[in-house]
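Researcher: Next entry in the queue.
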Amino acid sequence: MPKPPRKAQPGRPRPQPAGRPRPAGPGGGKATGSKKPFNRPPGAGNKPRGSSEVKPAKPPADGAKPQPRAPRPEAPKGRPPARKAVRPGPPKAGSATERGRARPAGRPGEGSGPGRPPGFKAKPGGKPGPRSAGAGDKKRSGYRPRPIHNKRPEGNGARLTADQVRDLPRQWVREIEQTARESMGPAVAAAVAAALEAFAGGDFEAAAKLAAQAKADAPRSAMIQEVLGLSLYHLGRWKQALTELMSYRRISGLLDQNHVIADCYRALDRPEKASEICAEVTKTDVAEEVWAETMIVAAGALADRSDLGRALRTLARAELNPAAVEPFHLRLWYVRADLLERIGRADEAAQMWERIVAEDPDFFDAEERMQASR
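Model: Structure for this entry, 374 residues:
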């Protein structure tokens, strides 16, 4: 038979476990040990983030019986039903997804905005103007790519001979020597020379292929990426051109192709991003022609959003009354005349058409539009 439990003898203290001394209980007595028990004061903020304070239960009123707590609901047995997979349906008409699928036809900006004026040809090797004071001020000029000209991990610095450079400009020779992989300098120089020749002749498909070959052996060359990006731009491959030109901007630290980058964003139906890219450029950052092209694209991006008045004001930031007329001035006038027609200022638009025809009677359809405006 099991032994009955031992009864505690009256007056005999219960043995305490060895270890930390217990503080005195409510029945009296003193705590043994040198340290007092730590009691957190009410309202103390030293508690874990997200923990909730547990409030003591209120004592029952005199004569009232304590109410038992409600039993905790039991968790349902068995496995929970599996969620039904929701497959996305076709995008709604006019949504961002639907707009992103549609590929724009023709040159950037055709349709809703003034678009790229006729006669434009993006060119590699633009000469930027002097940097403005405080060029790193983001509030003033936006993003500034950090030049990393000294980071050339693939180049071996091998000199090219006169037979290998193929009449390339000195800046191209230096670029190839610094970026081409070992023993690949002559092949890169040959591909670059052929790509530049094809680009100048308007064969952008061949220029893109040759520039891609050169990039494979000199992947850190900003100038090769510039030629490749501009060739792809002229072929209407906006996303690929954007990738190459953004790499060119990051490596070179220059903003002289921002107008082409912004035009790619316009073609991809992102006029807000195009405006941001144009806003990064100041007049002192780039040459006069590049500044004029930047204002043309910026005005087109605003016109894409039907902000024609602001587009006209943006275009006025470029020189509209030069002492010597250059081809890019005709493109500025063309876009201005188009905007004036769209907002109903037909007389001013007719004057701009006449001004264009006086400089170049064969400038796209300026003469036809001048006759239609009379």
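Model: The two ends are 124 Å apart (CA to CA).
Researcher: Noted, moving on.
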